[in-house]
């Protein structure tokens, strides 16, 4: 081909302009007719969804399209499972694929940034004039893979379940923690481990691969390296005192339980302190 | 002929045509409108190419319902003394339960957001399938991606406003996610939260973002998008046998060839 790409593009476009002028139809009113039908369908669907939503729900009682509203916002709650609107589920699920907090920025910043750059730059790395899908196999395969991965992530995000404390205990997970961390046999710390699984800590925190990593809550697998049981009891009683206003107080658990949790967290040193001193 | 003018024609000329001419002379508004409406499009455009207009309609619906909601909504987390609940939450209850057709307006705004997002993605898929982002429409693709991102931001900022548990905790997560970004992340998260606890400051901030800043940007981007669509034209489906701009057989020179725009008729020198 002697002609360069720019020249060929300009020729094709000049031919396009010419054809549209000679053989085309008027945008108004002829093409607008189809657009009008589309507009009616869109408004109809929106009204339909609103009507189904309203008549199937009642106040905070959910219908098939969810409730009118949930309970008023209550910053002190600890057992509410956060969930974004459905079109952010793919991002929401992406977070779980990565470990909190070391690699989570790959999901929150890395992958979205790469996706946006690839999307914006598309016309600059796909420069061929060819528009027929049958002659653009790479583009079509990439598109199908993108759609499938978005759909899978959205579906997984929609059906993701928070780890249930009772299930963890039935699976013997707290016992595994005891062995992994080297506090097996320490009855107080073992009781703390069971409490930790039961009381919903894992709805926000992660621990040895379990849990959600929501709300910016840190991983607690090695939290015991820096502080002792006394510190943790105080922290759990009043997180705000330590500058943490997202986490609620667990003072209601009572002294005995708090002491057990404190012992458990202090023993959580990532297994390093095993049998020492 | 001027003498034969009826009374009615004179009135029309005086009240409609003259003022329009006056405006057009100073702004080119009438010429611009004609240029936008009475342009030609390829005769074989498909139904898939109505998705962009559908997106525009969904957005228009969001603007109209949003303006109505703004007349009744209160962006405050302060406790309403009558209900004992936050003012924002109380106003949402009021709109849903008491305002005439308030439930419909709120329902349309809430679900219109989902429809808008879906239509943006479908429209983008159609443009991708048709290869309509290629020369000379590259910039309009970029404007479209910016509209998609801005539109998603609308969904993100609007989600907090009902000030219920779902809204509050989803936003706490969202703000914390912003905080994980390097450099500006923690700063942005703190700014979005409006203080150590997410409260009235944050709510008013998100309300302003949701109904002033982001929609302003979105409307500006949509105007640029539409201008470029009208200027550059709409493509024929790529598989169409009679698509505008199709290759012509070399022996039957096209109009373009006759005008000297293609190589048809020149010596082969490949």
Overview of the structural elements:
- The complex is a heterodimer of chains A (277) and B (270).
- Chain A has 277 residues and is mainly alpha-helical.
- Chain A folds into three domains: 25-72, no CATH class; 80-160, Orthogonal Bundle (Helix Hairpins); 165-267, Cytochrome Bc1 Complex, Chain D, domain 2 (Orthogonal Bundle), CATH 1.10.760.10.
- Chain A contains ten helices and three strands; from the N terminus they run αβαααααααββαα.
- In chain A, helix 7 (173-181) packs across helix 8 (187-198) and helix 9 crosses helix 10.
- The longest helix of chain A has 30 residues, at 27-56.
- The termini of chain B are far apart.
- In chain B, 39% of the residues are buried.
- The longest helix of chain B has 33 residues, at 200-232.
- Chain B is mainly α.
- In chain B, helix 3 runs antiparallel to helix 5, helix 5 (102-129) packs antiparallel against helix 6 (138-158) and helix 6 (138-158) runs antiparallel to helix 9 (200-232).
- Chain B has a single domain (44-233), classed as Cytochrome Bc1 Complex, Chain C (Up-down Bundle).
- At the A-B interface, helix 1, strand 1, helix 2, helix 3 and helix 4 of A face strand 1, helix 3, helix 4, helix 5 and helix 6 of B.
- Strand 1 (25-26) of chain A pairs antiparallel with strand 1 (40-41) of chain B, so a sheet runs across the interface.
